Amino acid sequence: MERIAEGEYAVMEVLWEESPLTAAEVAERVPAERGWSLATVKTMLSRLLAKGVLRHEEDGRRYLYRPALAREDYVAEESGRLIDRMFGGRLTPLVAQLAARDRLTPADIEEIEALLKALKS
Amino acid sequence: MERIAEGEYAVMEVLWEESPLTAAEVAERVPAERGWSLATVKTMLSRLLAKGVLRHEEDGRRYLYRPALAREDYVAEESGRLIDRMFGGRLTPLVAQLAARDRLTPADIEEIEALLKALKS
DNA sequence: CTTCGTTGACTACAGGTGTAATCACTCGGC
DNA sequence: GCCGAGTGATTACACCTGTAGTCAACGAAG
Q1: Which of A104, B25, B30, B65 is the 20 to 30 Å CA partner of A14?
Q2: What is the tens place of the pLDDT at every residue in B17-48?
């Protein structure tokens, strides 16, 4: 599976949220902080098409874009990659890491415990 | 904090494992799958120096390199970045994600439960 | 029909990255 | 004193990425 760059990811996010969309609609929905011109968004769309993670269908003289890759699949791949690289493929050290950095609230802990309990049954 | 590229990360890994080391020693210890020449490793070292994540001290006519950035700090930053981007900053969806993909063994679950229990006290 | 806005395609260009080669220097051995 | 191996510095170059500009075609409005 082709890698998706950071900026390209922002475009995918938009389309995972809502699709199909035209290039102009995607541009509207990209977070304003990016400050991208329409041209930039179009470049992203072309590159994502070339990478095969987007599809487009004709709609008159323009295209409607939609993801060709499920968000879950992408997210699973990226998470796995990070955990493999940094934690030798094991999740526990990541949890420990985050805990040590106070990234876990008591509510988070409860939630994860509940999730794990459900998994065991 | 400067970003560290994928290849550069491999060099950091070596130095986090053992330091200080000379360029040649780093090259020896980089995973063989990379198939890097010594020249490539030296380039990486220079760039990492420029980014300020490595230090070097003189040792006669060569340098000894050592990390100027703790592994924990880097790992914390990267993990946080990924979790922010893909899971809205929350860890629970990541755990759920991994669970759904069978990336969690029963042993993992036990381990994390124990960790969380310890955290609560 | 002419004009104008919209659209995809193509081109541009600087900075980062992977992957080196080459150069100049120097120290240890002869 | 000279030579070769090791060393950092400098340079190279293609591909990826962020960020557009431009162009040609086409369809709607007048």
Answers
A1: A104
A2: 999 999 999 999 999 999 999 999 999 999 99
A90 and chain B: CB distance < 8 Å anywhere?
Answer: yes
Cβ of A120 within 8 Å of Cβ of B101? The answer is no
CB of B22 closer than 8 Å to CB of B71: no
CA distance B9 to B48: 9
- A107/A99 Cα distance (integer angstroms): 12
Whether residues A79 and B82 touch (CB distance < 8 A) is answered with: yes
A window 42-71: Cβ near strand D (< 7 A): 42-44, 47, 60-61
Is residue B5 very low, low, confident or very high in pLDDT (cuts 50, 70, 90)? Answer: very high
- Domains defined for chain A, CATH in brackets: 1-89 (1.10.10.10), 90-121 (no CATH)
